[in-house]
Each structure stands twice: as C-alpha cells, then as structure tokens.
Amino acid sequence: MVDIATRVYNHKWKIDPIVRSLIDTDFYKLLMCQSVFRNKPDTQVTFSLMNRSPQIRLAEIVDEGELREQLDHIRSIKVSRGESTFLRGNTFYGKRQMFSSEFMEWFENFSLPPYHLEKRDGQYQLTFEGKWHEVMLWEVPVLSVLMEMRSRSVLKTLDRFQLQVLYARAMTKLWEKINSLQKLDGLRIADFGTRRRHSFLWQDWCVQAMHAGLGKNFVGRQLLNQYYIRNGIAYFFSRKSIINLNTILPKKSSYLIINRKTVNIDDLQDVKNAQKILQK
After folding, report:
1. What is the mean pLDDT of each successive set of 10 residues along the chain, which is 280 residues long?
2. Contact 164, 5 (CB under 8 A)
3. How far apart are CA 94 and CA 238, in angstroms?
4. pTM of the model
5. Per DSSP, which regions of 136-278 are E strands?
C-alpha cells in the first residue's frame, strides 16, 4: 500500500506524473472517439478549456512551467502493448471486440495533438485544435492535471505530519462511508471521478478501498471479474495477487508475470484461455 502522505511530501512530478496512460480516462470517451473516427474522421474542431469558478485564479496558483511539463509528458504517452491487448481482446457490455481493428491500429500509434497555453486575467486559457477524434481525448487528462496541480499547490503548505493526519482522516471518512454502503441491498457503484480527482494516488487508494470493502457491489471490473480497470490501467488479479498489465518485462517483450509464472501476452486475448491461466 502506497504511503500517500510521504509521496506527497517528497513529491517530484517525474516520480508521480499526474497522467500515466492514455486510457486513464472515462470509458465512454473511447467509445465516442471510435464513433467520431468512423463517421467524421476529417472534421476539424477547436476545444477550449474554461475555468467555471473564476474566483479561483488558477494562473496564480499553478506554476506555468510545471503545467507545461505535465502537458508535454501526456503528449509523450502512447498506448502500451498490454493496454492494446486489453482493449482488443475483451468483452464490454456483452460485446466482443467492441473496438475495431482499424480504430485500434490508429489508437496504438496515436499521441495527443499540440496545445496552446496562455495566461489571461489570472486564468489559464488552454486551446486544442485538430481532428475531432484526436482533440476530444484531451478533455479528461487536462482536467485531471489542473485539478491535481491545484491540490499540490495547497498541500505544499503542509509538513509531513500534517499530511499524514490529513490523509488518515480522509481514509477513515471514506471507510466509514464504505461501511454504510455495505448495508444497502442491491447496491452497484463505480468510480467515475478521474477528471475531478484530488490526485492519481488518492483515487487509486479510494478504488482499492472500495474494491476491498464492497466486493462485487463495486462494479469497476471487467473480464470475468478477473480483469480490473483502475485509473485507466488494466490489472489481472487472482486470489493472492494483483499484477499491473503495464509491468511487461522488457519494453518490447510480449510476456508478463502472472502468479510468478511467465505468460505470453497473446495467450490472454482469448477470454476462456485467460480464465484458465488466471485460475492456475
């Protein structure tokens, strides 16, 4: 379990980038992207981000250089082999291969288009221009970046012990809510807070806590209840372990470790075969 308070106190963005994956986004965003890719592939658009709380002067809170570093980092991210396998080979809402081969071939080589950033009256003006299906994928990550950078600026005023108390209280409060939810019959709940999260690490902890405390009532899972999406990252889990699919052995390797065994990632594209492997 990550010691969030210590990580926040010793924070360096290169250790904890705010966005770590292109599928660290809302699932429906990928479905919309595929639809636009199929039906309006050449439509040019301009997407602008506006702060709807003008009393919060973000340009005076968030350092421009750090913001650019985060945005440039996101532009360097590409879909990993494990993420591609997950999207290509699994069943979503009862449908196999919801993402077409044509879309996946494009997505595997995709990187986010350039951005335009300027300051105006205490606010950041962020604009993205390009093809509709490319520009639309900026929405969730750029909101996540601004939300977390605002949080980081506030937390800089706290020392290590104050941070430990802060997160301990937050964890206790969340666990009390989970205990209350356990009493509700027929409960189904899913995480949908990526664009407004306090931080990547805190959302990650919350999702793990909900999974542990609510079990099958927490429905942020896919692939026969053994393939779990947390913060856009695909995880295999069995009775004893959780393995991040992004921990592929060298970068170009097609193997990963599951339950201390080396498994060919291509063997996991078939759902029944994946289930057999995970049950061993």
Report:
1. 74 71 89 95 94 92 94 94 87 80 96 96 95 96 94 89 93 95 88 86 89 86 34 36 35 38 47 48
2. yes
3. 22
4. 0.73
5. 221-222, 227-230, 233-237, 242-244, 255-258, 261-264
